[in-house]
Amino acid sequence: MAEENVLRFVKTSDKARPPVFGSQSAAGADLCSAESCIVPAKGKVLVSTGLRVAIPSGHYGRVAPRSGLAVKHSIDVGAGVIDTDYRGELKVLLFNFGETDFQVNEGDRIAQLICERCTRPELMEVDTLEMTARGANGFGSTGGFGDGK
């Protein structure tokens, strides 16, 4: 049986707007706010979309920021993994890293939902892990921060 590639959604509010792809090649479908609220400077707010979704099997949903909100208003999103078996309302955790409060209006596009393929590996505890050239070096160890690497 072929894997179905359909994102089903239900509106739970008359203020909900359907997800929509902003362009023919957009990776994510824009999610709109079903309410008006203020995201305080240096604060966060959980915003309703008024939607419940069914992520296609073999995928997970990733709620990702919209680049324009990030660049122009310092708005980011968090806690963005939607499992295939979750059927509650889709809400978006907005963080405001800016110095001023940010107004969200009902119908504003606040995030995007990207359906990404994923596998669920078997979990196995072992005594050791094979070594790699990188080893345990992390947090900038591969360069890219003005060190010429």
TrEMBL record:
InterPro entries, sorted: dUTPase, dUTPase-like, dUTPase-like_sf, dUTPase_trimeric
Keywords, in A-Z order: Hydrolase, Magnesium, Metal-binding, Nucleotide metabolism
Pathway assigned to this chain's UniProt record: Pyrimidine metabolism; dUMP biosynthesis; dUMP from dCTP (dUTP route): step 2/2
Pfam families the record matches: dUTPase
Protein name: Deoxyuridine 5'-triphosphate nucleotidohydrolase
dUTPase-like domain boundaries: 20-143
Keyword field contains Ubl conjugation: no
EC number: 3.6.1.23
Highest taxon, organism lineage: Eukaryota
Catalytic activity: dUTP + H2O = dUMP + diphosphate + H(+)
GO biological process, one term: dUTP catabolic process
Cofactor(s) needed for function: Mg(2+)
UniProt cross-references to CDD domains, sorted A to Z: trimeric_dUTPase
Record carries keyword Hydrolase: yes
UniProt similarity note: Belongs to the dUTPase family.
Coiled coil ranges: none
One GO molecular-function entry: dUTP diphosphatase activity
Protein's job: Involved in nucleotide metabolism via production of dUMP, the immediate precursor of thymidine nucleotides, and decreases the intracellular concentration of dUTP so that uracil cannot be incorporated into DNA.
Uppermost EC category: hydrolase
